[in-house]
Design a protein that fits this description.
CATH architecture of the largest domain: 3-Layer(aba) Sandwich
Strand order of the largest sheet: 7-6-5-8-9-10
Helix content: 40-55%
Keywords: Flavonoid biosynthesis, Transferase
Number of domains: 2
GO molecular function: UDP-glucosyltransferase activity
Protein name: UDP-rhamnose:rhamnosyltransferase 1
Pfam families: UDPGT
Distance between the termini: 29 Å
Family: Belongs to the UDP-glycosyltransferase family.
CATH superfamily of the largest domain: Glycogen Phosphorylase B
Radius of gyration: 22 Å
Strand content: 5-15%
């Protein structure tokens, strides 16, 4: 790893918290200032590339200035998407990201609430209205940096020599092939990049977690719901309380790992009154960090209520757990549609404004965990584990990706 300076401009420095270097460090409304600071890394990055002369530059979709660096330094560029191919195909043919193409196919949030015209087969991949209202201005609108995210995407796509996607043919061949047909450069699946599964429980030595894993050991196999919404989702008090009541109403055993909300004065003020007392023995809650892979790998876990972020999807399905999907931000809604389409999960019902109730949570959990419908989902999730957890398969994807680079280098 090589450290490059992230130095905000003077007018942005006062708007970012000290030490803020990633989206997890800031609230959504300050994202534009982090992007502006990130854009100032172009010059030190250019100096690094000019000095080291790498064979390739692999960048994500925000680093639009890397295209200029790659061209000036004559280094081929690869665009890397950390999303499913279904999400990539929905959003990212470059001719529809800017200019007249965007104005024609994506003039408003409503235009994102149905599968796009370039989809050549039946699909459910589209945003809900409440999601599109947030995503459309976030993607196409001005963000204070002078470069909307869609323009950043378009520049990278138009400049790259290849596109790498965190996916595999075995899971979504139809969307990989569709996305490949929408681009003028090779689209290369690099596998799902599953994290290494935990080898020993002894790696978890923290006091509270020792107690929690002892509790998990006492539960029936595949009976516990793991609940987690990651570090990016900032749940409101109402959402936390409705999820809490939903877990209580479901009568299912659960383990909830929750990052402390910024609206809570202390841990005691997070949940509804006496929530812990009413669910004592049946549920466990941990505020803060959680050993997620060790939890998901425990034999008592059978399902997961989560945000459907792609990384968490991969972590969960490599253990074959059924999915209860409650998406909140950016790509999560599209991934939820994909997983329901594949028969691997149930999405929590929501109102037109995106709100949900405790009954919506409880009903979705019971459908996934104890109903006849859920048995089919559980069976398909176990089958999916043979793909998502196959390290040999995904290592081969990386080997093929490296081989492609070598072949291009040698001409």
């Amino acid at each position: 790893m090589v450290e490059l300076p992230l130095t905000p401009a003077a007018d942005h420095r006062r708007l970012l918290p000290d030490g803020a270097e990633a989206t997890v460090d800031i609230p959504p409304e300050k994202m534009q200032f982090l992007k502006a600071a990130f854009d100032l890394m172009e010059e030190p990055f250019k100096q690094f590339v000019a000095k080291t002369r790498p064979d390739w530059i692999v960048v994500d979709v925000i680093s639009h200035w890397a295209a200029d660096v790659a061209r000036e330094c004559q280094v081929p560029l690869v665009c890397f998407y950390a999303y499913s191919a279904a999400v990539c195909a929905f959003i990212r043919p470059s001719e529809y990201l800017a200019g007249d193409g965007r104005k024609r196919v994506r003039p408003s949030p409503e235009s994102m609430t149905s599968p796009p015209e370039w989809f050549s087969f039946p699909s459910s991949i589209a945003f809900r209205t409440h999601e599109a209202i947030l995503v459309h201005p976030g993607l196409y609108g001005n963000n204070g940096t002078g470069k909307p995210d869609a323009d950043r995407l378009a520049k990278i796509l138009e400049s790259c020599h290849a596109i790498a996607v965190r996916s595999c043919i075995e899971f979504e061949s139809e969307y990989i092939n569709l996305f490949a047909g929408l681009n003028n450069v090779p689209v290369i699946p690099v596998g799902l990049l599953p994290p290494e599964p935990p080898k020993k429980r002894e790696t978890v030595t923290d006091g509270p977690w020792t107690e929690i894993f002892e509790w998990l050991d006492q539960q029936s196999p595949s009976s516990v719901v793991f609940v987690g919404f990651g570090s990016e989702c900032k749940l409101t008090k109402e959402q936390v309380h409705e999820i809490s009541h939903g877990l209580e109403l479901s009568n299912l055993p659960f383990l909830w790992a929750l990052r402390k909300p910024n609206w809570a004065a202390d841990d005691l003020n997070i949940f509804p009154s006496d929530f812990g007392g009413r669910t004592s023995g049946r549920g466990k809650v941990c505020i803060g960090w959680a050993p997620q892979m060790e939890i998901l790998g425990h034999k008592s876990i059978g399902g997961s209520l989560f945000h459907s972020g792609w990384g968490s999807v991969i972590e969960t399905l490599q253990f074959g757990h059924c999915l209860v999907l409650l998406p909140f931000i950016i790509d999560q809604g599209l991934h939820a549609r994909l997983l329901v389409e594949k028969g691997l999960g149930i999405e929590v019902e929501r109102r037109e404004d995106g709100s949900f109730t405790r009954n919506d949570i409880a009903e979705s959990l019971k459908r996934a965990m104890v109903s006849e419908e859920g048995q089919g989902i559980q069976a398909r999730a176990r089958e999916a584990a043979a793909v998502f957890g196959d390290r040999k398969l995904h290592d081969q994807y990386i080997a093929d990706f490296a081989e492609y680079h070598q072949a291009v280098k040698q001409g």
